[in-house]
Protein 1
Amino acid sequence: MTNGNGDHRDGTDGGVDGGPGFASAASAAEAPAPQPPRLFALLLKDRFACLAALVLVIIGAAAAIGPFLLGELATEQNLRSTSLPPFTLENGWSFVLGSDSLGRSVAARLVVAARTTLLVAVPAVVLSLTLGSVWGMWAGYHRGWRESVSMRIADVILSFPSLLLAVVVLYVFSPSVANLVLVIAIARLPVYVRTARAESAELQSRLFVDAARTFGARSGDIIRRHVAPTVLPTLLTVATLDFCFVILTESSLSFLGIGIQPPDLSWGLMVAQGREELQTAWWTAVFPGLAIVITTISATTLASWARLATDPAQRWRLTVPRRRRRAKASTEEVPA
Amino acid sequence: MLAFLWRRIVSSALPLLVVILGVFFLARLTGDPANLYLPLSATPEMRAEFAARNGFDQPVVVQFFDYLGQIARLDFGESLRTAQPAAQAVLQAFPATLQLAGTTMLIAIVAAVVIGSLAAYRPNSLADRAASLLSSTSASVPDFWFAIMLVLVFSVTLNWLPTSGTDGTAAWVLPILTLLIRPFGVLVQVVRGSMVSALSAPYTKVARSKGADEKRVIFGHALRNAAAPALTVAGDLTVSMINGAVVVETIFGWPGIGKLMIDSILERDFAVLQAAVLLTALTIFALNILIDVCYALLDARVRQGVTA
């Protein structure tokens, strides 16, 4: 998931680029000299968001490097070490999270599965975010028939049972990672189209967009230069939140047997396989689920932080109390 | 009001039609049922006879118009698997799903209103932070894993509750608990958010200044105004639950519509699949219109726009 983190960093940078333009447009009156928002410094100040980001970076790094180091360990069957219990070092570090009924290390399998899970989730989110926001901004900017046709299409996609779509793709094409990405991306497209459309429809009547139009800017350029930077922070927050949803969708599909197929591994598939051994080796089902929970909670935490940090009207919530707290802490430190 | 209803019906009918159309053609893309229902050694004549008997020898478009004609006569075809009428199979499974979804949503709404209002009453209090931690965690937990954990704790280890089936109250506990986590988490956040703004709104101050007691202020004034967004979200959540609590129904062996749908896809039982999707799509269609009407009745501004 170096990939994913790279995208996310790019995203926050996009937020920084968009920041000053947004501030000068929306709250020029209240903030005469808008401070350039340094998101990274803000992130370091928030303990929970920082921890969440750290967890996501570690998972990303594990998914990127792990399979090269632990790939063999994850598939190596050893019938002399089946169903080893977790949390003891008697069997060496590789079995610290126990082993399954074929004697494979649960820890190594978790790391390898992290890669598949992220290889589905990150491209799916990026794809639906890019397509959906461009489409939604275009529809919202032009209004009229382009808007209503787009909204009807979004309605249709939303009301279509996505499970059926997934099964069809599984039978008609191969159940590969790429096809799974495509199915999930299509199913999540309406979320971005709707959000981008609503924001851009409101923006296209604003004064700064009118001004750009008066200068004869083409509609594509106005969307790119004036509408997109303002809508982007909202869309990125939606995307971070959607990342959880996509991970949950992928794991449910894999759990039901219509997502990732063996011998590939994903966390959802591991839960499904562990379910068979619930009576004898509970850890094979518990740990992959915990991995999903930790990842999604981190993404949610980061999303709610990003919502505050990228919104100029809300950012004070992150800076003011912290400063006060820090000031208090430093006065307490002086006598000591 | 009638014009409003009519507009809603027309704009919701298009997705309904596309779903029926899409299911019909997509189902036929999943493969030839003959491969499943005839032995590997079946001769081409046997295959042709099978196709002719079930109408699969016609072009797909002709099959579709035949299907539309059958629907108009309320004939939904026969199950390939059990030779039972498809309508009967679907109508047997649907009540199980409806009961489960209804009970779950009722519990979720009541719990979310109580907890969300408590949290919103004193923002940033201990209760508020506990509620937001609880709700954000419950929205991040994969339901299939949660279900397995419940089975592990309450059925395998403690041996208190059955792992599957529908007999007795005990069998309902685990499926409902599993289904509850997602709507509960989402609804608590929505109720809390709208209650916070309702409790600081001018009309709440007016009510307090007139000496109304707190119970009346919270439930009579604030909650009534905060109910609209929660209603919309609750509607969406119910819709997704009707569309198939597939995971829960699979894990707990609940004989509902979600399990029926996935089984009939896997078994290429087109008639049952189409009937099931048609029934859920119609239910969702009706539910959406009902929610719009409730929304209009609840919000005076929308109501005026509707009646005018």
Protein 2
Amino acid sequence: MSYVTHADLGGRTGFGRVVPEDENEGFHEAWEPLALAITVAMGATGSWTIDQSRAARETLPDYLQLGYYQIWIGALEKLMLERGLVTEQEIAQAQVLQPAKPLARVLRAADTPAALARGSATDRPDARVQVAFNVGDRVRTRSHEVPHHTRLPGYARGKVGTIERVHGPHVFADTSGQGLGEHPQPLYTVVFDGRELWGDDAAPGLRVSIDAWQPYLEAA
Amino acid sequence: MAGHEHHHPDHDEHSELSETEIRVRALQSVLAQKGYVDPAALDVIVDTYQTKIGPRNGALVVAKSWTDPQFREWLLRDATAAISSLGYTGRQGEHMVAVENTDAVHNMVVCTLCSCYPWPVLGLPPVWYKSAPYRSRAVRDPRGVLADFGLQLPETTEVRVWDSTAEVRYLVVPQRPKGTDHLDEAQLAELVTRDSMIGTGLPRQP
């Protein structure tokens, strides 16, 4: 497997306790708002998909050592370097050394409120795909690893669950994350009994769901 | 913020910029010079998530669902439309699902793969939501996580965890606290905490 994600954390142990935070606490470092803003603004240029940006983040080798906005910035640099939009030297010197490349679009201040309020829907209701499962159907998730970005968490691989909601076709993260296009696939909420995921250790009464695209599933 | 310098002459011992800060500011400068980002747009983005979009939006959605049965029914059937009718739309909230807590079921939301979170109703996620401890344990030991928040649920309550692994974003609709019949929607909204809409807390008592 040449593709390694460091972000698939569900069910892993040893990370310690959760530290709650007051809801009025906002950013923790002066540079964090800027990191958010340039990440959102560069995302709006259409130079990569959200799935490609997730793939860039989860494959950062030091993912688990970085703060979340550091992960964003690390991935942003990686995406821009890959596309030749900036060079390592330009970042190091904070200076433009190469001419700018043309972008599909640039997010202007006047258009920003509308763009944020619009978002980017990923449902594709008109996509012509066969919906294979209905609410209540029993399904088994794919058990093998894949050598690319995917959104089937490791803890839910090869498990039997029940279709709880049918969301219709959505952009398929696996192809979109590889830059191979949207290839919309039916999306489902699949719910698992805790014991199916964690065996006899499972807390009584626990149920956990994931949202899974049809290619992750087969009839059980 | 864009283009501004932040000098703190009275705090020289703190004035050394971190490596990350230097890099972020360098990036901003290069991107602006190349015309990839509009510095004024960066200011609008920051202002939006610092002053306009946050958990008070979600609190109003929940409070309305407590007082208006028709809205509640709509929210549980088509959360995207119901929430959008209150003006909360957009990025990271394009496909919303609202899940209601009852005496029998307590809902809790996580993204084990990154930090998926319903921005239009809750704002930007807190640090713990994005952290390895929460993401690893929420799906396996949710009661242990709730204990970290000082919350203990009755043994008979089922814990239902929603892992946001696609672009669907979840809003927990907590139970209305008892003894709040005399409160109006705005007063009720003040009882709705961010954590109660993620499922790691309960609303405040009046």
